[in-house]
Structures are given as C-alpha cells and as structure tokens.
Design brief:
Blueprint lengths: L1 E8 L3 H11 L9 E9 L3 H5 L9 E3 L2 H5 L6 E4 L6 H10 L3 E4 L7 H13 L4 E3 L7 H11 L6 E9 L16 H4 L4 H15 L6 E7 L4 E3 L5 E3 L5 E8 L7 E8 L8 E8 L2 E6 L5 E6 L5 E6 L18 H16 L12 H20 L3 E2 L1
Parallel strand pairs: 1-2, 1-4, 2-3, 4-5, 5-6, 7-12
Antiparallel strand pairs: 7-13, 8-11, 8-17, 9-10, 11-12, 13-14, 14-15, 15-16
Bound molecules: nicotinamide-adenine-dinucleotide.
Length: about 375
Amino acid sequence: MKEVKIGIIGGGLMGREMASAFARWCALEDVGATPVLTAIADLSDAARAWFDQIPSVKLSTSDYHELLASDEVDVVYVAVPHNLHEKIYLDVLAAGKDLFAEKPFGMDLRSAESIAKAAAESSSFVRCSSEFPFFPGVQRAFEYVRDGHCGRVLEAVSGFHHSSDLDATKAANWKRQSATCGEIGVLGDLGMHACHVPFRLGWYPERVFAQLSRGYQTRPDGKGGETTCDTWDNALLNSWVQPEGQEAFPLRFEMKRLAPGETNTWFFEVLGTEGGVRYSSKYPKQLQIFEAGKEQYWKTTDLGFSVPYKTITGGIFEVGFPDVIQQMWAAYIAEREGQLNGRFHCVTVDEAVASQKLFAAALTSQAQQTVEHV
Ligand SMILES: NC(=O)c1ccc[n+]([C@@H]2O[C@H](COP(=O)([O-])OP(=O)(O)OC[C@H]3O[C@@H](n4cnc5c(N)ncnc54)[C@H](O)[C@@H]3O)[C@@H](O)[C@H]2O)c1
C-alpha cells in the first residue's frame, strides 16, 4: 500500500496520541494509503525519547527546521502551544509540506487569516484537527439534521466540557496564560470542537452575545511558587443563525474548563418542529432521537462500531477517543488521496478561519457587553 510519510512537531500529549493511531493502521479497511511516522521534532529530550520505540522514526531533532528540510516527510502534524502555531504553520507551508494543524488555527483571527493566505498561495493540503464528529453517534446526528428530519430548527446547542481545572492545586501550564494559550483562552482550547458540526451544517452565526468567565486567577507554578492565570476558562456564546428563507434560531456554544463532574464531554442537541436529536460523548454509544406525534417520545438506541472509515472491529463493539483520532486521520489521508467518496472530512481552512471570526466577535461582545455581528 502507498505510504504517506509523517513528521510530528510537538511530541507532547497529542503528538503521542497521533503516533499511536498510525501504529494500529492495520485496523482500517478502506483507506488507500498508510501513514508512516518518520520524524519527530520537540525541544524536550524526554518528549522525543518516547518516540525512540517507533522503528520507522529515523529523524529525532530539537530543531523543527531540520524536520521540514527532510525528504522523508510529506505531511507535518503540529501540536505545540498556541503562540507558536502561526510561525510553525507558515514554516511548514514555506517548506512545501502538507499540513495537519492542531486547533486553534493560529492564536487569533489575524494569525488565522495569515495562515489561510499562505495556504491559499501554496499547493499544500491543509486541514485542522477536530475528532469528535467521527463518533458514530455524531455522524448519525449530523445526517439526521442535514437530511431535514428536525423540520424547522427551533434551537441547537453544541459544546465541550472539562473539569480538570476545578482542582486549584493543579499547576499552571501554557494553557492557563494568554501569552501562550491566546487571549481567547478556552475558545482556542475547546472552541473548534464545538464549531465543527454546526459549521458543516452551514450554521455560521450572524450575531453573538458572549459570557466569558475565569476560574482561579493564580495557581502553583510547579516550582514552589504561584503564578497568574489570565485566560478565560468558561464560555457561553449565545448566537443567532439565519437559515435561508426560514426563521432565525438560537445556537448556543458551550466551552468550559470548569464544568463540575465532566472529564471530556462533547455534546450536540438540535430541537425542531418535527424531530430532534441528542448526542453526548458521556454515553458514547447512545443516540437519542425525538419522535413527535399524538404522544411524544425520546427514543434511545445503542450504536455499535459504525464509523465512517471502515475497520476490522466487530460491529457491536464500542468506539473510544483513540478510535475517533484514527478516524480523523483516515479522513485526512483519504481526502489527500482523493478517496473521500462523500465521507465526512476534517475541518477546512475556511471553517477554521470562521471559528476565529466567531471567537474575535465573542471577545468584543464580552468586553463591551454587546451583541456583535460575526
Ligand atoms: N484535538 C484534541 O483533542 C486536542 C487535545 C489536547 C490538545 N490539543 C491541541 O494540541 C496542541 C498541543 O497540545 P498538547 O496538549 O499536546 O500540549 P503539550 O504541552 O502536551 O505538548 C506540546 C509539546 O510541544 C513541544 N514544543 C514547544 N515548543 C516547541 C518548538 N518550538 N519546537 C518543537 N516542539 C515544541 C513541547 O516540548 C511539548 O512536548 C495544542 O494546539 C492543543 O490545543 C488538541
């Protein structure tokens, strides 16, 4: 099978997760190319050492420019702190490599637009990371809404909740500070995840009112002292979507790093005049569908392993986070090979820039307590 040579810049939490998805590529049945991890770049020796166990990795370097100069790299996946996204993404494009960018796409709207411009001027294939839509339940919810089963949409919510930051003793890292995470804070961290499905349905908000809040303003710095944390931790974006020829409806985006009891809960709900649908990764195999009639029902069904990119895994088994990460990569590789065949694809450059437009409007709304046009 054709091989696609991958280089990873940033071998932390997500760099390792992606490497493990390539390592069990034999599970996939109908993607006509195999990603092979050939190179890793990370400033940390300890982070790079983990990749020594992967035999195909021939280049391990602290200088990512060396990775970009290698003929043994076709596609570069970048997973570094947000303040480095613009510089490194631009360098990847200038080196003529294809790019799989982590979210957020740049750390603000300006940087997203500068990356988008460079991408448009290049011949590189560029997509942005967002894996939750590859859960079978999300696929089914997406198709249900896309195919009009809700009737006229009355309201929708799309969100992503964490709670690990409720622990006040947790040391601050780069995600807690605007200088490295970006002024958009939680919007950069979790926002693209919440925007992916609504945007793919064509739901681009016209107006937004944002309620942003912070958690702990100081945290241990991990070296015996305290440090300031200035990022937004929780965000409610109350927006309006205007579908062509129909009533506008409210679409709420919820992104929280302080949501009591939630570990990694991605959810989506749409209610309409004729039907409705709900999915939450808290109950990963359950899909709920509303049936209107003389009596009204919420029907719950357990979905199996009905992923968009077929695998050897038995149809009744459950899907988890590593599976949807691999499905997202299957989408990237299949689309790059021209083999998408109508299946769900990764976040495009336009969708990523649109998310930054929404987040920029949200910052203004929060600062001025106004409803902002997006
Ligand atoms: N898709 C998802 O579900 C998901 C989940 C978590 C994080 N992320 C995103 O992934 C990215 C990275 O997050 P993470 O949690 O993996 O962070 P992390 O802190 O675990 O890892 C970042 C790595 O980048 C390395 N690094 C920093 N500067 C570098 C440089 N100049 N050159 C090379 N390496 C450098 C660090 O040494 C570290 O190993 C962020 O954009 C984040 O938003 C995505």
